[in-house]
Design brief:
Length: about 300
């Protein structure tokens, strides 16, 4: 954007760049607007305050006024779209993002947001088209690639998802979500060494990631490295004692050991762990089935 356009359309901060404000601050902003109701900056600040405080109707009024004052500012329509999304008015949000694209055809945020809405509405093919369009414009931007990868992933298109996760990691080798999701695909394909490498890389970056500890434990378990599996599941639970899948996995592997060597495992500990999970989620059928099996044995 050249200097002239910057002066005409000053960039608007994302709403979460503003802290929460009290009623006195809101009143102060309103007084500023009363003094000069043609100042878009005051409306922007007040609009973001309302947005941060989840006063969406008030935020909408502010940004609609900004749209009147700055009809050629694409960020105004991006922000309007964001408000409509939070109000679950997806069609209205989509129209705002489309208006933003009329002003600036290569507005990546608007393209991705339209893809997000199409995905929510179940129009997956056109969502893919939007994400690919964004990738074509900004090939080094990981956000549209990640949207594309996770959409493929959700619909079991694992080869396509893996390709995009790999592209993301080439751009940003420290993208933990791409590393983790790619590790899960490797696991599904039986590439356990690759899966283990990915999960360990994630844990090197995020040692408190209980999901990665759990899935690394699953790698050890399926490759018959039982002691490492038990130890790794234990690390997952030390990070998050409420992790349902890990509680089940550890109980299941310990019960298998109990069946072959009853003296090696305290069965009461397993039962206590399973009851703990059910106390938080009584609808966990997998846990209930294992508990019933233990009680019946």
């Amino acid at each position: 954007m050249d200097k002239k356009n910057l002066e005409k359309n000053p960039p608007q901060k994302p709403y979460n760049a503003y802290p929460k404000y009290n009623k006195l601050t809101i009143a102060s902003r309103k007084k500023d607007i009363e003094k000069d109701n043609k100042s878009s900056d005051d409306y922007v600040k007040l609009g973001f305050i309302h947005l941060e405080n989840k006063n969406y109707d008030e935020a909408l009024i502010c940004f609609q006024k900004i749209a009147e004052l700055e009809p050629d500012n694409p960020e105004t329509f991006n922000n309007l779209g964001n408000i409509y999304e939070k109000m679950d008015m997806l069609d209205s949000a989509k129209k705002c993002y489309e208006k933003s694209l009329e002003i600036k055809a290569d507005n990546i945020e608007a393209i991705i947001k339209i893809g997000n809405i199409l995905e929510l509405q179940g129009d997956y093919h056109h969502a893919v088209d939007q994400y690919k369009k964004a990738v074509g414009i900004a090939s080094q931007d990981v956000e549209p690639r990640f949207c594309l990868a996770t959409l493929y992933d959700k619909h079991d298109m694992y080869d396509e998802a893996a390709d995009e996760y790999e592209n993301i990691i080439k751009i940003n080798p420290l993208h933990t979500k791409a590393l983790y999701n790619l590790g899960r695909i490797y696991f599904q394909y039986g590439n356990y060494a690759e899966a283990s490498n990915n999960f360990q890389t994630v844990l090197g970056l995020e040692p408190e990631n209980a999901d990665a500890w759990n899935d690394l434990g699953s790698v050890y378990e399926i490759t018959n490295n039982i002691n490492e599996a038990i130890s790794t599941y234990g690390k997952a639970l030390s990070v998050n004692p409420f992790h349902e899948e890990t509680n089940f996995n550890l109980s299941n592997i310990q019960y298998s050991l109990y069946l072959s060597s009853p003296q090696s495992v305290n069965i009461d500990d397993i039962i206590q762990r399973l009851n703990f999970v059910l106390s938080r989620n009584p609808h966990n059928k997998k846990v209930q089935k294992l508990l019933d099996e233990i009680k019946a044995s």
